[in-house]
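Hey, can you fold this one?
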Amino acid sequence: SERSTPLLFFHVPLNATFARNLLKRNASSFSRYYLRFLFYTHVWARQLLVADLRSTKGRSSYHL
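Sure. Predicted structure:
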């Protein structure tokens, strides 16, 4: 089950690029704040996941 890498590791970079592209296109202020909220939420969740992986020495308690 080492290959079942959590989706967040792939989701965060894609989300960051996607959000940046939308911000460059002058999205509405609502979209801008919403995307920023989504981005930081994913970063925070990823940091939690990394900390959990370190504390359990690779055996994550999250199964996405």
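Residues 29-55 form the longest helix (27 residues). Let me know if you want another pass with a different chain boundary.
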